[in-house]
Amino acid sequence: MADKNGVHHIVESEVDVQVTQTTAQPHDTNNRPSWSNGQVVVSVRSSSALNPTFDLSLCRAKLENDGFRIPVADMEAPLETALDVPSVRRYMVFNSALFHFVMAPVLYVVLWCAVFSTLHLYITVSDYWVLCLSVSLISIFLTTTIIFILHHSNGEINMNSDVRLIQVNERMVKHKLLVAVADWVQNCAGNMQLYFVYWDMSPCLRALTETLEEVNDTQNKLKRKLSHLVLVSEFTPADPEVGGSDGEHDSDEQTPLLQHEDAGCPAASSRRGGAKVTTNYSLIPNASLPAQTRAYQLLMTYSAAYVKLLVSERLSGPSNHRLRSRRNHCTAAPLCLCQYIKKKILR
């Protein structure tokens, strides 16, 4: 479900039915090749580095050739809502690897000039080349540090791209697919692509559910690792008078999975000057929910971030196949989705 600002709220449903159900018809599965978790089914490049949009009709044609029959309401509509927004496209440009690649020399020149002008005022040296060499070394160090921080931050879950794909992946997982956007620089050119990766969520759901049931103090770990991930949205309530019976009925029927942990419901503050209500949704699963539901929420929350790292080959884990855990449900990476969540959050 999406509000008028394009922020998506996941509607709670039966988790086991969503994960195990496959909407493709029986005759489609006969033509579908055998896939394993982590295999890239379809990848489509963006039409432009300055205006990242993806040809969804081409994606549909390629998926149908591989036997995936997906309704428009499960693919094109949520993808357009999540990614085809001007503010999101601008963010993807300024946060892309190509932009960081171009920004590096510009940042170096700016830092060099700033450091040189500062040291030249307070330090007097007889050899001019010593000052220039010192300024160059300092500028290189500062530039490398800033670029490294930006690159490392891209490995984490991104609120403006990865989180927006949660509602897309919740629909696509019924067809055993996960979606993500990944980009890197190749031959001095940007390479931003939309990836569709095959993924059967059932093994990861079972394994993560068992972990949440066995490990103690999981809720405090989730609060410590996910407390900074908060969705802020604005919507117009059905009843202008807050607290009306109709509004309460709607909120009970469409309860978002990502709720405010402390209150058990979204923390809302209405703007009396207008007709909109600002709501904060936490990505921390509610402690009162069953372990399977909380596991499903975590898998969906980190699905796009995991696939982004998977296709970019940036997942860290045992390089030797023999050292990989027997519970790894992905043959294409050292860590599967549930193991990534355990390593990232539950440790």
From TrEMBL:
It comes from the Eukaryota. The chain crosses the membrane at residues 97-122, 128-150. Keywords: Membrane, Transmembrane, Transmembrane helix. Coiled coil: none annotated. The keyword Amino-acid biosynthesis does not apply. The keyword Transmembrane helix applies. PANTHER family: TRANSMEMBRANE PROTEIN 268, TRANSMEMBRANE PROTEIN C9ORF91. This is Transmembrane protein 268. It comes from Echeneis naucrates (Live sharksucker). The lineage of its organism: Eukaryota, Metazoa, Chordata, Craniata, Vertebrata.
